[in-house]
Amino acid sequence: MRSVARRHGVDLATVIRWVRRAEGQRLDRADLGDRRPGRRSAINRTGPELEERVLVVRDELKQGVLGEYGARAIHDELIRQQVPAVPTIRTIGRILARWDAVQRGRRKRWPAPPPGWHLPAVGHRRAELDSIDVVEGLAIKDGPAFELLTVVSLHGGLAGVYLSQPSYRAPHVLTACLAHWQAHGCPEFAQFDNDSRFQGPHSHHNVLSRVMRLCLGLGVTPVFVPPHEFGLQAAIEHFNGLWQRKVWQRFGFLSVDAVAEHSARYLAARNAQQAQRREAAPARRPIPADWRLDLQRRPIGQIIFIRRTDSQGTAELLGYRFQVDRHWLFRLVRCTVDLQQHRIDFHALSRRQPACQPLLGQAFHEILNRHFHE
């Protein structure tokens, strides 16, 4: 046995195990293959007789008057027949599944759409998108409260954090966005939620807020998405949580200036870490040196609203409700407002088919150029 073990490069115990396994058998009939460790069957597995009884009872109940032959009905019938050691309902369900006696619907998991899929140019990485949000509810212990305006680019990962004390208002948002784009350049799209600081007051119709006018004046298309739609705000929400974990929750701060100082160091390190990713992202446009913001100038360009239709196939934007498609109910739709053509285009959006965004309809809608009250 030792010579055989040396010849085949195995342990002596292996040869002994093979000899014992083939003892009394012809070598061509002996099972010399490796076996899985442990018992051939689970020690607590239900016996074959009881499993067969479960299947027989299922067939009987299936032909019965009630037509109920699930695991609970089988369990109750076994108890009624006074079968000893009746298995539990969960065990009966496993027995039925083991013998393919039940059809279990499995959830089909669709692949996630690419980032920025709701905007074709962003989804195909031809354009950059900046997600912008406001973080509220921050306060120094026994000190002042403050808020953050956070910015992060979808493809490049370029981040920015701007503090305001005590809270952000629309003019502060405009100043922070302008400062960020002057430092890093403008993207093709800027995405916000439906906060009135971004979109303007919701009590009036056809409101073009100062943030909209800033974006349109710089050639940036503003995009407004619902705050609770899954995935559309994932980039900025992830960054908000990351900043709070890595900066706000790790250290104790005595003043807002200390928070701003540490946040600036964190952003410098993070943006340096994302340099390679930023180089592969779509290019950003610098702001011309002679550009000036004129809130009274008539806006030109497009504004995009991501909305979900209701039970009538309508979507609400700009204070009005528009008929989109009576067959496209409770579904996402991209509403593109063309300020020059006075037209709204409605495109269907589906996460299962992100590349298919057909035009559902159009609506004529003119926004008059009114005096902007600052």
How does this structure look, described?
This protein has 374 residues and is an alpha/beta fold. It has three domains: 35 residues, no CATH class; 51 residues; 264 residues, Ribonuclease H-like superfamily/Ribonuclease H (Nucleotidyltransferase, domain 5). 33% of the residues lie in helices and 18% in strands. The strands form two sheets. A nine-stranded mixed sheet has the order 3-2-1-4-5-6-9-10-11, sandwiched between helices. A hairpin with a 4-residue loop joins strand 9 and strand 10. The longest helix has 18 residues.
Indicate the CATH topology of the largest domain.
Nucleotidyltransferase, domain 5
Strand content: 15-25%
CATH class type of the largest domain: Alpha Beta
As residue ranges, the low-confidence spans are none
Number of domains: 3
Helix content: 25-40%
In short:
It contains twelve helices and eleven strands.
